[in-house]
Amino acid sequence: MTTQPMAVIGRFAYQGQGRAIPQRQHVESEVATRGEVRMPGTKYSAYAGAQPYFDLVRRALGDLVDGEHFFDILSDDIAYEVRYDLGWPRLIRGRAKLMEQFRGYVGSIRLRSADRLIVNQADNGKVIILEYEVHGTILATGAHYQNRFCSIIELENRRIARWRDYMDSHAAWKALTAGAA
What we know:
Number of helices: 3
Distance between the termini: 42 Å
Mean pLDDT: 81
Structural class: alpha+beta
Order of helices and strands: EEEHEEHEEEEH
Radius of gyration: 16 Å
Helix content: 10-25%
Low-confidence stretches: 1-40
Largest sheet: 6 strands, mixed
Shape: globular
Strand order of the largest sheet: 5-4-9-8-7-6
Strand content: 35-45%
């Protein structure tokens, strides 16, 4: 059975011909699950390995932000905090520094999809909570990488000003240490 892609709009997720389903349902990512790498021009082609994630986030935020690509919707002075210790600094300040971190990420991991999206809003749409999964490959070992995330996003002036990220650290650890003796 083939299901139609879904999108989150406001308090409901919509599937197909405008049929509303409760927002807490998992929302499949239309583009990101097909393994396509679609970059606006070549401006961000060096980050193609994370494109499914970028597409999922951009689509989840919809018209709450301005900009075509994930990096376009970040404020210049973003505070990007990761609540785990697996190779990234706990706090990254600034769009340029975050782009440097993602350059390292795509040198180590290639995502093939991002899905199971759940979107919730708080504080009149100024705070967005995303739950999602990513699926890919650890490039050094060929190990499969599957992980779940919860990201709390604060918006200011139609850009992401703060990002707090939580993930299944055990899943990441298993993928990163696969084959280690």
